Amino acid sequence: MQLFIDSADVAELRAVAASGLIDGVTTNPSLIAKSGRKMKDAIAEICSIIPGPVSAEAVATDMEGMLAEGRYLARIASNVVVKLPLTENGLRACRTLSDEGIRVNVTLCFSAVQALLAAKAGAYFISPFIGRLDDKGVDGMDLIRDIRRIYDNYGFATNILSASIRSVEHVRQAALAGSDCATLPPKTFAAMYKHELTDSGVEAFLKDWASTGQSIL
Ligand code: E4P
Q1: Separation CA 67–CA 214 (nearest Å)
Q2: Around Cβ 54, how many Cβ atoms within 10 Å?
Q3: Contacts 24+ apart (CB under 8 A), 100-109
Q4: Is the model's pTM score more than 0.85?
Q5: Which residues line ligand 1 (CB under 6 A)?
Q6: Residue ranges making up the domain that contains 135
Q7: Position 205 in a domain
Q8: Mean pLDDT, to the nearest integer, of 40-52?
Q9: Share of the chain above pLDDT 90, in %
């Protein structure tokens, strides 16, 4: 499963990119606002840090506006993926941009039938929001499983990008459900390394090693 980072903070992204484990980045208007940067500059810098897909979201709600913003964003760098909301206009714009060879990430997906429509509109990524469904008392992971099954049933190539991930457990379940990618906040990515038995195991090995008085080099 590919791991993306959900952030527009370039310092944060440089730090996680050093792991060599990050396949892409997702941003949204809230994250751009939080960064305090001009969107074009932030996206250009992120694209230079991470060579994989970097999602940049359009904010227009009409189709012509989405097309204009999408084409503008796609020109910032060759690894930009245009993010559009799962609305009727968003899917019409998705069809047009996809036909032009621009990759589209259809975001704010909350149902399997929405995901079916996005695939039919040529979406490169579909972003089902797990955490926000969980917040409503619905098991967000059921949606990932449903989409996986539907896409496999009909051979849709659209990649499932599990979003609104809130925990390492979400990552585990998304991977088990066959999600192609997951986008995580940096702190959730950092938590993936962690296990108390790893920490106590290293501590015990080092203690025993010290008792030998040896050094490897
Ligand atoms: C993904 O593309 C979204 O930016 C993100 O995962 C939303 O997460 P949130 O529900 O925690 O805001």
Answers
A1: 65
A2: 30
A3: 100/71, 102/70, 102/71, 102/74, 103/53, 104/70, 105/26, 105/53, 105/55, 105/81, 105/161, 107/28, 107/55, 107/57, 107/83, 107/163, 109/143
A4: yes
A5: 6, 26, 28, 107, 127, 129, 131-132, 163-164, 183
A6: 2-212
A7: yes
A8: 98
A9: 100
33 Cα–ligand 1 center, Å: 14
CA 62 / ligand 1 centre spacing (Å): 22
Question: Does residue 160 lie in a domain region?
Answer: yes
Please report which helix (H) or strand (E) contains residue 79, including its range: none
Distance CA 25, CA 68 (A): 22
Give 164 Cα–ligand 1 centroid separation in angstroms.
4
Strand-strand pairing, 80-85 and 104-109? parallel
The protein residue whose alpha carbon is closest to atom 10 in ligand 1 is 164
Q: Which residues contact 138 (CB under 8 A, 6 or more apart)?
A: none
Q: What pLDDT digit, counting tens, does each position of 145-182 carry?
A: 999 999 999 999 999 999 999 999 999 999 999 999 99
In a domain, residue 217? The reply is no
Per-residue pLDDT tens digits for 185-196: 999 999 999 999
Residues in contact with 19: Cβ distance below 8 Å, sequence separation at least 6, in sequence order: 189
| Half-sphere exposure of residue 165: CA atoms within 13 angstroms, side-chain side | 32
> In total, how many domains does the chain have?
1
Give a yes or no: residue 108 inside a domain. yes
